[in-house]
Amino acid sequence: MAKKETPKGAILQRDKQTYAIVPRTPVGLVTPGVLEALARVGRKFEIPIMKITSGQRIALVGLEEEQVDQVWEDLKMDIGPAVGLCVHYVQACPGTSVCKLGVRDSLGLGKELEEMFVGRELPAKLKVGVSGCPMCCAESYVRDVGLIGKPKGWTMVVGGNASGRPRIADVLAEGLTRQDAVELVGRFLDYYRDNAGKRSRSARLLQKVGIDAVKKAIV
Questions:
Q1: Which residue, 1, 56, 13, 7, is CA-closest to 34?
Q2: For the whole prediction, is pTM greater than 0.90?
């Protein structure tokens, strides 16, 4: 018997009958139009759960199989990767856009990284956190790739994880310009792709090879 194909961008739920979808909302930013579209489909399809996720997205949960394509058509939004072996999302704090503590433009850098890297295929899922100051409100130290804004530039950390096997990320480089940070993120993703085993998160790679090996290879 052929395996049943999962609907576009859908995640089978615990009941093995209904699905969830996660529209893409880069760095957690939404517009009135996006909120209106979400509210419209929520009412039209009587979606039982609409949940803000840890990745600054809004999951629509409890869809019937035949509703999934209709909801995507009505939303006219891109899919936010949630289960694939790729870069899932970039989360970011407000940074210098509005926060009085911000010292770096975390939203601007986060959006740039989102556009460049989300969806890039990797050995396992990968998450990015961009914080505009050392308060680290975007949880950068427990993300696969984290950036923290400081007065002298960006600090980049790698190998963090907030799962059942938590790990604080290692500092890869400090005092980076925005361009330096973007380029170094790209080099780290390439290194991770080439050196990690299938379904092995970056935290496990850093435990295995150590931060000095990563620095030697890409910094």
A1: 56
A2: yes
